[in-house]
Design goal:
two-stranded antiparallel sheet, binds iron/sulfur cluster, 27% helix, alpha+beta, 16% strand, three-stranded antiparallel beta sheet, 4 helices, 134 residues
């Protein structure tokens, strides 16, 4: 699976063929969601804390990738998910301050995860079915 990810609240439009509002947040469950210093500074401003405090609380340094990434927390569907994800509402809680990689994903009119979700929901005849990828 790709190591960079994104996020939720893009609705289906003539241009976008996916609807993050109907998705449980697959992209937010990526094991490693990399962030830049600028991303961390934006989140620090969002919470009115220093960069040092934000780094400690919201991010972690991955030694193997040699990069900073989002911390994660437990999730009933994906086992782990971004610590900023609301696991009840299935939404990003820092949408306007989210990292660049979250803004850019999926970077095309289609989201493979959403296509998969749509297929599984039609197959199960359950519009709320949450298919897992593992
Ligand atoms: S910051 Fe928001 S959009 Fe990005 S991974 Fe976390 S919950 Fe998802
Ligand atoms: S996996 Fe795709 S549809 Fe689901 S939240 Fe991420 S970008 Fe949106």
């Amino acid at each position: 699976m790709a190591t960079k990810k994104t996020i939720p609240i893009k609705s289906a439009t003539p241009k976008n063929q996916y609807d993050c509002l109907k998705c449980p947040g697959y992209c937010c469950s990526y094991p490693l969601i990399e962030v830049t210093k600028r991303d961390m500074e934006r989140v620090a401003r969002h919470f009115s804390v220093s960069l040092t405090v934000a780094k400690k609380k919201f991010f972690r340094y991955d030694r193997s990738e040699k990069s900073w990434c989002l911390r994660r927390k437990n999730d009933e569907h994906f086992k782990k998910i971004c610590r900023f994800f609301d696991t009840e509402e299935r939404r990003c809680t820092i949408y306007h301050a989210r990292p660049g990689v979250c803004r850019d994903y999926p970077g095309e009119p289609h989201c493979g995860y959403y296509d998969f979700l749509k297929f599984e929901r039609e197959h199960q005849q359950d519009k709320d079915f949450i298919a897992t990828t593992s």
